Amino acid sequence: MKQTYISDQDFQNINCTDQPFEIGEYENCTFRNCSFEYADLSGFSFTDCEFITSNLSMTKLVKTAFRSVYFKECKMFGLQFNECNGFGLSFTFDGCALNNAVFYTTSIKKTVFKNSKLIETDFAESDLSQSVFKNCDLSGAIFDRTNLEKADLRTSFNYSIDPSVNRLKKAKFSLSEVHGLLYKLDIEIDWN
Prior knowledge:
Layout: E1 4-7, E2 10-12, E3 24-27, E4 30-32, E5 45-47, E6 50-52, E7 65-67, E8 69-72, E9 91-94, E10 112-114, E11 132-134, H1 179-182
Pfam families: Pentapeptide (PF00805), Pentapeptide_4 (PF13599)
Protein name: Pentapeptide repeat-containing protein
InterPro entries: 5peptide_repeat (IPR001646), PA_immunity-related (IPR052949)
């Protein structure tokens, strides 16, 4: 089955419930104020694309390819990134709400998460080495056998990361959030 190839297009104010997207390869496209909520984007390919102020919550992503994709101020609740096509998987998140998203076992080295909410997001067994978490809320995020080597979490907060089960060599943390690394020891920290 031949897939559609679409490049250099600007899509605005589209609701996939009313106007479904054609499955295919999208390159250098911008999706602005679009709603993909509960849509099925399985098998789609997005390369060098931008999603701006769009809603992708609960979108189905089986074998979906995201290559150098930029998400800005998007609502992305419950996305299963672990079901995406892993080849070339790379994206940047800026000002996004990724609550309850799943990155379980994904290899997403050097990913940038900026000014985003990652509440109860599952990063178990992921490779996040050299990733940057800038000013992110990581309340309830799951880090279990996660590779965070050389990751930068200095400006992020509300995380709980057990150093005994995660790889943290040369990772960067701020002193003000160090309790997120020590929580399991059940100790009291005097900030004076």
